[in-house]
Structure formats: C-alpha cells, structure tokens
Amino acid sequence: MSEKIYCVASFKPKPGKEEAVFKALQSLEPNTHREDACIHYTVTRQIDNPFARGTSYPIVFHEIWASREEFEAHCQRKEIQDFFAQHVESPDGDIEDANVCVYTDEPWNFDAPRV
User: Domain with 17 in it: what CATH number?
Assistant: First the structure.
C-alpha cells in the first residue's frame, strides 16, 4: 500500500510580483530537499503552450512526500510557516491567494495486503 502524499500548491501573486514570488518559493527548495521524506519538491511557473490552454494560478509547487505524517511535519517547519505568514497571510505580502491540496494515488477501497 502506498503511503505517498502528492501536494499541489498553487499561488496567485499580486500584480507585478510574479518574479519575486517565484524567487521566494525557489528559496524554500534547498532545505526542503534535505528532508528525508521529501521525494519531489519543485516550484514551476506557467508558460504559454497551444496544447495546454487551461487556467490556473501562475506559480505551482509539485510535491511528493513519503507519508502524510511527514508532509504535515514539513508544513510545521519554521521556514514554511514564516513563508506563509509573510507572503500569504500578511496584507503586505506578495501573494494574493494560495491553494494547497493533497492527493493520494490509491483508488477508493484499495485492499492491498500489509506486509
């Protein structure tokens, strides 16, 4: 049974703050990559492509964590909490809105044996 957690964290910067937000999010990568449970953690920015015309916030973190508990521990790190307090929750922050969601790759009623 997979315990992996997949997180998609989308960010909508305030007008004119796109580059600053991208750089601020990139600064979180090095220490997060040091976490043993971090499988994948990459910030990306939306680009124009004729085959992918969907709408989304322009900056998105793609994360994979070994387990839900370890993802939640990551979220409690001071660096992560400080980022959200400074950039998302503060009226002076550069981020207008954020949407953080977690997912599993297991189907409903998955009955894999525990070994």
Answer: 3.30.70.100
